[in-house]
Amino acid sequence: MSTIEIPDDLPDIQVIDIRSGDRSMPFEHRVVPVSQTAKAIKALAKDRPGVQLTDDAILRIAYSAVEPDLLADLRPELRRVETGWLTVINYRAYTLMLSPAVENDRLLDEAHYAADPDTVAQQQVLSMPTAHETDAALVYTDPMDALLDAVDRASKKVKEQNKQEVGRRIVERALTAVPVVFLNSERYPAVDLGLVDGNSRWASCTAHVPAPTGLIGPAKDKERPSLLPSHLMSLPLTDRRSLVREVIKKAYRDIKAATGTSKAARAKRDQAAALLNAMTVPVEVVIGYTDDDPSMGMQRFPAAVRSLLMRMNIGVKVFADASKHGITAEETVTALFDEGELGENAQAVKDVLLGRVDITDPMKTLSLSALRDLRFAFIAQQLTRKEPRLNAITAAKLDKRSLQLAGRSGLVTELGLRSYSTSLGEGIKPVRTALESGCLWKDLVDHEWTVDNVDNDEAVDDLLQRADNGDIPAKLLLGVLAMVALVTSGNLLAPGGSAEQIVNHTVSRTGVGTVIKAILERKEGPQVLADAIKRIRGGLSPRWWADGRLVEPDDWKGSDFNAHLRLAALHGFNPEGETSGLSGTAREEKALTNFQASLTGATNHLDDLVKLRKDNGTTDQLSWTAIEASVKQLRRMSRILDRISEEEPLG
Predict the structure, then answer these.
(1) What is the residue-wise DSSP string for 130-193?
(2) pLDDT (0 to 100) of residue 543
(3) What is the pLDDT of residues 200-217, one digit of tens each?
(4) What one-character-per-residue DSSP string does 192-208 give?
(5) What is the pLDDT at residue 216?
(6) Which one of 297, 344, 384, 506 is most buried, by most CB atoms within 10 A?
(7) pLDDT tens digits for range 503-557
(8) What values do phi and psi take at 117, rounded to 5?
């Protein structure tokens, strides 16, 4: 544990009275004996409407309380969520008796998903928690080692990204926790109190606590590393509470031992006082759930908890848009599943949409091959269906009165990119940017369409033929598959000004979906897109339409294809006049560039002539008749340039 650097002009850190916030009077934490939790346990076990707690959860809550006697008199409160009412209680808890979220929702956009065939088991995102049959608890089915690894990584990440000021002051904004159950706990405790909000505050608090030697063995370095969630989650409940007591006692011993006014003594006291101020946090614990539809029981409890999180004040560091879209997408899919809006094979549809499990079998159930672009197209198709109930649920999850394309695009993008979460690596960022510019177009919502198993070149050719024959659903599927292939391969990028410079022409600067829509309407467009699907699937660069046929351009990069595709979207594949779409100023700049380029070429030719004369030993002067026209032309150009340009600067 590193020593706190204390500037000379700051006062000493004082242990703060957690009941009053007073710093002036001496205050001492005291972990009460387990026997004093009996009253709280009895009160929590009392049968009350809206409260559903397992015996293990009751023990966890009572043992976590700094002042367990106060739990006996607490009145549960209600929190409204979309599907019903959550019952909660508020009290102050020992930080080390809580565990951070098994999975951090802020990092959903960075997770690796099983829908990507390149994702290995150790990397992939965990399964979503399910509901306990009768009680307010989230149930996790992954192996405990995978859960502990995930929670440690998430905790380290939030500690780096969102460090909170803890130590000189106590935590005053409540964390939110819920009882959790681990079905495959093996040698570890099978229950815990897990946070659903406040992970950054928890991580900043525990940064003050060194990992106990008994949990990590002898420290290799002089200073022990900070405590990790897995250290705590591996302890039986009573041992965990004993750890809290020992950490607090040691902090007080350090304060008493560090006497004197030296900088080292002061730092030691401040370190211990900061730790004590970080040892407790206010917490709101979910202890029950009542669904608006009694027949649903606890089935929608996980969605209700997540809904509560998304609508809370998450304070210092807001979710990135990608993570928000990911969470909202999962909420939407779960709600559609719960409401029976995913049709036949609903479980397979849900698994394909969420991408958290291997999608090979679910896609097979839907008569589809497990290709990345086919899954993306299926997601787009499912989230552009016109069913009123589907649209109402999705709009509600987006906090919108009506459902717009932009809202659908965000959900489709985040779910679709889960098939590329590992394979694209850092390259996923420009892909996400391009898709977020708008990966859908209005026809996808206006027309009913389905996803066929277009998994080989022959199937693509058949799809192209149907599209050319006026089959609108076939044209839409062709467009979506091509868009996914082009964007994920870097050949269709987010709109930008560089495209116009590449083609010396105005281009379409709309979202990628609108570009694809425009290309589909061009005579040559469907053929270019179908060819791109086949070639990109085969690891080849897409071809372009020129001179009435598909050709493979020399030295084209993704930005070149993007520029020409956006040019064709606005002007067609054979625009008339290279500069007809440019502004007057842009045409002037292009003319000057062309002139200067021609001068460079002329200079090179002149150098070639001089070199040839030297190589041939020619010493005769060129006749005036031979060079008169060239000299007069150069003089004329010089006079014109002098007239339209500034004077040459002196010096």
Answers:
(1) EE-SSSS-EEE-S-HHHHHHHHHHHHHHHHHHS----SSS---SPEEEEEEEETT-TTS-SEEE
(2) 96
(3) 889 888 887 877 766 555
(4) EEEEEE-HHHHHHHHTT
(5) 52
(6) 384
(7) 888 888 899 999 999 999 999 999 999 999 999 999 999 999 988 899 998 889 9
(8) -65, -15
Token couple for 645: 């340009």
Q: 306 pLDDT exceeds 80?
A: no
Contacts by residues 236-240 (CB-CB < 8 Å, ≥ 24 positions apart) = 236/189, 237/59, 237/60, 237/63, 237/189, 238/34, 238/63, 240/63, 240/96, 240/97
Q: Is the pLDDT of residue 361 over 80?
A: yes
Q: Count how many residues are written for the chain.
A: 651
Beta-carbon contacts of residue 563 (< 8 Å; ≥ 6 apart) = 498, 499, 500, 502, 503, 507
How far apart are the C-alpha atoms of 125 and 128, rounded to whole Å? 9
End-to-end CA distance of the chain: 63
Q: Phi/psi zone of residue 145: left (φ > 0), alpha (ψ -120 to 50 degrees), beta?
A: alpha
Which tens digits make up the pLDDT trace of 432-465? 999 999 999 999 999 999 999 999 999 999 999 9
For residue 495, give the 3-state DSSP assignment: coil
pLDDT exceeds cutoff 90 at 191: yes
Report the C-alpha gap between 268 and 287 in whole angstroms. Answer: 40
Distance CA 498, CA 492 (A): 13
The two counts, helices (H) then strands (E), for the chain are: 25, 9
Buried/exposed code over 219-244 (b: 16+ C-beta within 10 A; e: otherwise): eeeeebebbbbbbbbbbebeebbebb
Token reading at 310: 């998304």
pLDDT over 70 for what percent of the chain?
A: 88
Q: Which residue has the higher pLDDT, 182 or 625?
A: 182
Would you put residue 430 in left (φ > 0), alpha (ψ -120 to 50) or beta?
Answer: alpha
How far is 487 from 493, CA to CA, in rounded Å? Answer: 6
Local structure of 112: helix, strand or coil: strand
Question: How large is the angle between the packed helices 525-537 and 512-521, nearest 10 degrees?
Answer: 120
Alpha helices in 46-85 (DSSP H): 55-64
Chain center to CA of 560: 28
